[in-house]
Amino acid sequence: MTMSTFSKGARLKIKRADKHITDIELGIDRLKKRLVCARHVNPGTGNEFIKCDFADIEDRESLENLSAIIGDALHNLKCALDHVWLETMTRLVPSWDWGRTKFPVHPTRDDFELALKNLEVDTLAPKFSRLLISEIQPYGGGDFAIRTVHELDIRDKHRLLIPIVHYSSIGDIYVRDEYGKPVRGNTWGTTDPLPTSLSLKGASISKTQEARPSM
After folding, report:
1. Where are the domains of the chain?
2. Which of 64, 81, 189, 205 qualifies as a cystine partner to 103, CB 3.0-4.6 A?
């Protein structure tokens, strides 16, 4: 088996995943251009705020379709790992049937090493076993990309992977200045977590408002 034919299935899966990723990037760029932001006024407080939404209902449908494409990309990447695993183990230990096994990914290194022992990879292919444990590291605390692909591929089987952006701000702030004059206002929006309280020149402000995650 030459290098050009080895893992041909994995190469095709990765190529397909790249196509999905390109479609996702193009889709996001199109949606960003379709996003419409407008200034609104809270009728209860009179405070101004900015609301962003898509121009048409078709834009929302396009966003929802992205979740399916993301799932397809992840599944192809996970399948690529399984193809490499099957071909590698079949090549190293041709006397065994590896068709029902998949590329092992586990929460911890100990769990991963135990899985290799249960499959007898540590004795049948010791060099490959050491490579998996020390270099590839498909376990928690090891290779973040492999672990993430594995976990998201599992999650996609049960629920849609919807891209979201967390946007928060503190609104309806009410303080008095040193002359006793009331001052109202809001903070700028942020994607960082908000504090549960805020100290401003000795004044304690405990009322916070966090926006719901927006897609």
Report:
1. 8-156, 167-215
2. 81
pLDDT at 2 over 90: no
Buried b (16+ CB within 10 A) or exposed e, 168-186: bbbbebeeeeeeeeeeeeb
β-strands 173-176, 48-54 pairing = unpaired
Residue 143 has pLDDT above 80, yes or no: yes
Q: Is the dihedral of CA 55, 56, 59, 61 positive or negative?
A: positive
Phi–psi pair at 203, nearest 5 degrees: -90, 135
Name 206's Cβ contacts closer than 8 Å, sequence gap at least 6: 196, 197, 198
Q: How much is the pTM?
A: 0.68
Token output for 119: 């499959």
